[in-house]
């Protein structure tokens, strides 16, 4: 009787262990892999050195990302500056052309006011350009 109780207790414990292994199989597999690597390396494997290499790789990747971000920001700033310069140049050119146009307009008005026959000349030129005959 004592043995059958012990077997039932062992059977129940094995079921619990089996359920735990099903749930935590990754932990067990990782432990077995680490143990196997430790045995195979036999002291040649330095975990601190390995972790330092991982940390260095991570830092290099972060530095690369930061440099890339800085380059993108600089390119964006350069593009915005170029855009602003282009707009400023276009506005300056537009202002110069407006001033030139106003000066030409003033010259034409002065010529028209000086010459009494200017209206006839203007009418004749418009007639030539448009092809419309003007009858007085």
Written description of the protein model:
- Helices cover 88% and strands 0% of the residues.
- The protein has 136 residues and is mostly helical.
- It has a domain at 1-43.
Strand and helix map with partners:
Layout: H1 2-23, H2 25-41, H3 47-114, H4 118-130
Sum this structure up briefly.
The protein has 136 residues and is mostly helical.
> Approximately what portion of the residues adopt beta-strand conformation?
under 5%
Instruction: Please state the oligomeric state of the protein chains shown.
Output: single chain
- Which stretches are low in confidence, meaning pLDDT under 50 for 5 or more residues running? none
Mind summarizing the main beta sheet? none
Attribute tags:
4 helices, mainly alpha, 136 residues, single chain, 88% helix
């Amino acid at each position: 009787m004592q043995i059958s109780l012990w077997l039932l207790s062992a059977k129940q414990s094995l079921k619990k262990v089996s359920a735990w292994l099903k749930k935590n199989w990754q932990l067990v597999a990782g432990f077995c892999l680490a143990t196997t690597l430790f045995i195979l390396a036999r002291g040649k494997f330095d975990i601190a050195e390995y972790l330092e290499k991982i940390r260095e790789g991570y830092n290099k990747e972060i530095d690369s990302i930061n440099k890339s971000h800085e380059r993108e920001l600089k390119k964006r700033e350069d593009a915005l500056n170029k855009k602003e310069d282009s707009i400023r140049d276009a506005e300056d050119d537009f202002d110069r052309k407006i001033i030139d146009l106003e000066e030409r307009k003033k010259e034409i008005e002065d010529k028209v006011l000086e010459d009494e026959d200017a209206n006839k000349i203007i009418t004749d030129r418009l007639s030539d350009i448009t092809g419309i005959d003007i009858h007085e």
